[in-house]
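Good morning,

Attaching, inline, the backbone tokens for the sequence recovery test we're adding to the shared suite. The designed sequence is right after.
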């Protein structure tokens, strides 16, 4: 499926000496899965290499130059313009690119290209600082991509983008040379070894500055938000060719070199904020207000047209009047930030005076309430997924990104709306960063036939002339040129600037091996080639737009596939099944997916928490398992009816395992020191005068006791009873608890009939023993609590242990804090239950030193999968031990999670209730 000639055998042979086999991917499934980014283009790489060091990149670039092999770099793959896809060699960043160093009091930070943007801000938060760029994808995009695309965002503008906050850079050039602009020796060596390149850069800068017409064009373009073409302002704003070189790398999209690290000047992250929504009767008055707000003390001004507002009018928490606004209405979401409440109030007074000059149709006054702010930002952030959620299956969602001069913003919006009508994009919406004249417009598009492709082409040709020619704006404000806009660079910039860009490309990449056809291309129809089809596969995932937001929270991302990649492969399998094409490819994809896509999916649901349209890949995985595991149904039914005996067998297995481990030690199959002992269910003491609470202890906690040699060998049932008694509650272990289960083990294997049977049985048991819901129910395991959400009789008052303790127990406890750091794991189920803040509050009541490891959202133990597929748990927790090495112990709210956490951290993890009981 590649358009390029096959990669030379000589390159492949040499590259195998650089990259080990476990990071070498050339099979059909991997090339398909890794070949996808967030754009609406798809190219299948012939080879995917996961690189883990700068030395590997250096070696590979030298080989690529020697053998004339094109290479493309990939960080997170969240880019939207096709700059991270290739039909040659794709170099994907591995996990070892997450280094960081903070300088001074956070005024600067040096970051590896694999650091996620939000993580950098988390490290800077204690200093009251953040990085300047704030793209909407900041929770998933990585520094390498942020810099390479000069991504900005809602508050960043142009002043705080990567170009203007760059303090230093380490870069690898096409010939494998490394330049670190912050190391004097590196700079000195480079000035000597690459004197000719630096001399030519200086000459180009001088020629550019002496060309009055070109200089004026460049200055105009960069007064706007602009990522079309290379960063020519590097030639006009700097005189030292080293500075020119490093700033040319910003926004170069991997076409001029590989960014190995970057140092930012950080910006203030003011803690005091207020948010408002002003709704105007028409776009003209709305944009007039933007011009006034440009000089006001505002951090963000987001414009939403009427269609945008209509697309989110049904969201919970929004004012009801959003549904009844006039057809021409337009809104501004405004946020002001300051370093103190007094300063913020002064700013709000100044801004409020401006609003008096306009007649508003509706408004939400400035509020410092975080919940109000969250609801208002939900309007803005919900627009893109709102379009994606209603698109027809088989179509894609396209988000374009243009800039108009601010004086022409209203006319630009109106002209775009007229183009929507002309080309029948009736669902299209407009929103954007108004202060910069930066508009995003979103529409759905099918590429399934030539007529639809022609419609898209005609529309984009008109958009290009409207924005770039009529109004002198930019066709790509912050999303990068990519393949999408490469054919239009000359139209926007003119011949002189376009030829200058080609000179730069040839200077930095004389053999044209670095991401060819991205940013610059001689092919004027490039934007119409390799368009991505999104064939139907299953209603549960058909709304996926392949943005990649799900990937950082997936526990299997380092082992096999991510949710996005699973959906990509399933779409291809469905397409091949439907068309009957390539039966051999279909057979191979289906075979390989069995492990990489199905078996290794934790089905934890964390992907749904990051997905803009709420897709849970675990739901599809369970459906596929149901189809594959139909022969298990009779066994599943027997397990449900004999569940008490099954749990007894499980306890027996634990006893045998512990005995074997005592004899064989580490040679015991499927066993390690963190494995639990068999639990001996206690008889809970009955005390008078306490409020009764029905105890739903999970099957895992009934079967599994603490690990052998635990510092606290009590069962969780004993700890729970003791803790709740201190607050005046009596836990009740009702008869036949041993036969009860929430149904999650059956659900995870796709045994839905057995799951339903278990839940119906449990529902009846709970109703009986709670006196038809009069007695509250205490669930001691967060995965069970999540599984039962919405599945029980509404009369039942079921509380997860964390919720119950927070609401009813903690206020009645007197706690003595320990002077020890304690690690906290917020399980995937606890996160989905919204318990992150509660867990932090509870643990902080016990210690001032709470350690929450970075980049671990799900432990990957996944019920019983940690026993039978330990590599998933090991991969998901590969960074845990180094982050908790100073801790005395760890806590969580799920017994099975605690097994894997203990094994891979070297600490003992137990339920948070153990610490609470010991401190009270």
């Amino acid at each position: 499926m590649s358009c390029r000639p096959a990669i030379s055998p000589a390159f492949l042979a040499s590259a195998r000496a650089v990259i080990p086999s476990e990071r070498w991917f050339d099979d059909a499934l991997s090339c398909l899965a890794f070949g996808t980014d967030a754009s609406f283009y798809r190219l299948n790489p012939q080879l995917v290499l996961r690189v883990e060091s700068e030395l590997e990149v250096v070696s590979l670039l030298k080989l690529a130059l020697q053998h004339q092999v094109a290479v493309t770099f990939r960080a997170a793959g969240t880019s939207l313009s096709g700059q991270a896809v290739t039909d040659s060699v794709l170099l994907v960043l591995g996990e070892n690119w997450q280094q960081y160093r903070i300088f001074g009091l956070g005024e600067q930070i040096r970051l590896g290209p694999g650091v996620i943007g939000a993580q950098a801000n988390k490290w800077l938060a204690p200093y009251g600082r953040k990085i300047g760029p704030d793209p909407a994808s900041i929770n998933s995009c990585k520094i390498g991509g942020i810099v390479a695309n000069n991504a900005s965002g809602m508050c960043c503008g142009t002043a705080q983008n990567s170009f203007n906050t760059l303090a230093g850079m380490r870069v690898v050039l096409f010939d494998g040379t490394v330049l670190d602009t912050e190391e004097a020796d590196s700079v000195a060596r480079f000035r000597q070894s690459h004197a000719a390149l630096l001399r030519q850069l200086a000459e180009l800068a001088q020629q550019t500055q002496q060309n009055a017409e070109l200089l004026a064009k460049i200055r105009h373009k960069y007064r706007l938000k602009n990522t079309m073409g290379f960063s020519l302002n590097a030639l006009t704003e700097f005189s030292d060719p080293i500075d020119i070189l490093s700033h040319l790398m910003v926004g170069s999209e991997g076409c001029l070199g590989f960014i190995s690290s970057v140092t930012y000047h950080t910006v203030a992250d003011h803690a005091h904020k207020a948010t408002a929504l002003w709704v105007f009767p028409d776009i003209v008055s709305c944009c007039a207000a933007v011009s006034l707000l440009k000089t006001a003390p505002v951090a963000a001004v987001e414009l939403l047209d009427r269609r945008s507002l209509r697309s989110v009018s049904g969201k919970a928490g929004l004012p009801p009047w959003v549904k009844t606004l006039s057809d021409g209405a337009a809104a501004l979401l405004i946020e002001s930030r300051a370093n103190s409440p007094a300063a913020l109030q002064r700013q709000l007074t100044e801004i409020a005076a401006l609003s008096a000059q306009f007649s508003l149709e509706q408004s939400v006054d400035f509020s410092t309430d975080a919940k109000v702010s969250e609801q208002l930002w939900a309007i803005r952030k919900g627009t893109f997924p709102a379009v994606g959620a209603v698109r027809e299956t088989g179509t894609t969602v396209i988000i374009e990104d243009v800039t108009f001069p601010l004086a022409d913003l209203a006319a630009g919006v109106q002209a775009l709306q007229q183009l929507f009508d002309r080309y029948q994009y009736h669902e299209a919406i407009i929103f954007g960063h108004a202060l910069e004249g930066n508009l995003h417009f979103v529409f759905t598009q099918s590429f399934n036939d030539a007529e639809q492709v022609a419609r898209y082409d005609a529309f984009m040709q008109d958009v290009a002339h409207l924005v770039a020619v009529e109004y002198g704006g930019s066709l790509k404000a912050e999303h990068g040129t990519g393949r999408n806009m490469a054919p239009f660079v000359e139209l926007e910039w003119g011949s002189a600037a376009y030829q200058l860009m080609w000179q730069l490309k040839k200077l930095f990449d004389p053999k044209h091996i670095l991401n060819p056809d991205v940013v610059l291309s001689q092919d004027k129809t490039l934007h119409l080639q390799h368009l991505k089809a999104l064939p139907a596969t299953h209603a549960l995932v058909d709304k996926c737009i392949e943005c990649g937001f799900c990937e950082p929270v997936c526990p299997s991302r380092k082992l096999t596939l991510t949710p996005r990649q699973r959906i990509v492969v399933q779409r291809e399998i469905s397409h091949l099944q439907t068309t009957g094409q390539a039966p051999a490819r279909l057979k191979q994809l289906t075979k390989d997916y069995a492990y990489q896509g199905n078996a290794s999916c934790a089905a934890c649901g964390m992907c749904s928490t990051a997905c803009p349209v709420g897709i849970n890949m675990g739901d599809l995985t369970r459906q596929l398992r149901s189809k594959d595991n139909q022969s298990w149904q009779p066994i599943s039914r027997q397990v449900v009816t004999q569940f008490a005996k099954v749990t007894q067998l499980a306890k027996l297995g634990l006893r045998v395992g512990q005995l074997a481990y005592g004899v064989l030690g580490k040679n015991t199959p499927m066993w390690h020191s963190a494995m639990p002992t068999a639990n001996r269910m206690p008889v809970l003491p009955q005390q008078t005068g306490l409020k009764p609470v029905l105890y739903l202890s999970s099957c895992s906690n009934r079967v599994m006791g603490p690990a052998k040699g635990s510092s606290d060998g009590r069962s969780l049932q004993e700890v729970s009873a003791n803790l709740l008694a201190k607050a005046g509650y009596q836990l009740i272990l009702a008869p036949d608890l041993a036969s009860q289960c929430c149904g999650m083990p059956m659900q995870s294997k796709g045994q839905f009939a057995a799951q339903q049977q278990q839940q119906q049985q449990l529902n009846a048991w709970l109703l009986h023993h709670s006196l038809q819901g009069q007695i509250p129910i205490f669930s001691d395991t967060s995965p069970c609590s999540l599984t039962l959400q919405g599945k029980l009789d509404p009369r039942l008052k079921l509380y997860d242990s964390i919720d119950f303790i927070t609401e009813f127990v903690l206020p009645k406890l007197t706690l003595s804090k320990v002077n020890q750091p304690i690690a906290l794991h917020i399980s995937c189920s606890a996160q989905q239950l919204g318990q992150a803040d509660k867990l932090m509050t509870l643990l902080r009541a016990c210690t001032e030193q709470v350690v929450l490891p970075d980049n671990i959202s799900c432990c990957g133990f996944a019920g019983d999968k940690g026993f039978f597929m330990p590599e998933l748990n090991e991969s998901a927790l590969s960074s845990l031990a180094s982050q908790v090495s100073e801790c005395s112990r760890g806590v969580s709210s799920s017994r099975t999670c605690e097994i894997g956490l203990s094994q891979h951290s070297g600490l003992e993890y137990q339920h948070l209730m153990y610490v609470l009981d010991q401190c009270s």
